[in-house]
Sequence to fold (254 residues):
Amino acid sequence: MGRRRKGEEEHENHERWIVSYADFITLLFAFFVVMYALSTMNEGKYRILSISISSAFRNVPGSASGAQINPNAPLSVGIPVKKPQIDHKRQQNRETLRNKAKEIATALAPLVEQGQVRVTEGARGITVEINASVLFDSGEARLQIPAVRALTAVGQILSTTDFPITVEGHTDNVRINSPLFPSNWELSGARAASVVRLFIDTGVDPRSLTATGYAEQRPIADNASAEGRQRNRRVAINMESKTPDQVKELALPE
Fold:
């Protein structure tokens, strides 16, 4: 009897690993069940879960007891929404430009009525287009006496502003070849410079003025007709809506 009892005590259970294996399979099954439940969670529950997790990690107080979360409401990620601010200074500048354009149109009223002057407003600001025939003789860049009087009135209006002003000279596509102007480039540039010099004489700040010539490169009408060529021969006075103190220097990488 003693030998048998001792043999039974020394007998080792080789099937104990099955219990550990069964526990592992059970845990693995539970893991896949949870993953499947998360994958099939509807959008509303996902939003609630996301908000709860964010609040827990950020120590943000959650919703009060009994409060309900609307699953259809957009999910907030804590980024403040900036409302567009109105640039009052730019609006004021634009209004000032419009008033100056009205003053110029009044000063040039007879030419406006005749269709020789057009005042338009664009994205850059105000543009006053004057037909070259009322300013210069054909092929010349010296201002006629009536044109000097009209532009002097315009210059006096512009002298009370600090807006950037660009004077553009334009021609038709008829080539010119004279000792003074070998091409339309020289003619258009000289005409723009003549207007700029007159503006300076009437008190406009030279630092706000720019003269440029485009020759026939920017037509506003078809050069195939005499009427179209006449429209293309013009001087454009552009008053930009940005004041000099609003121009910022571009920061370049070192």
Summary: Residues 165 and 239 are 5 Å apart (CA to CA). Residues 60-67, 243-252 have pLDDT under 50 and may be disordered.
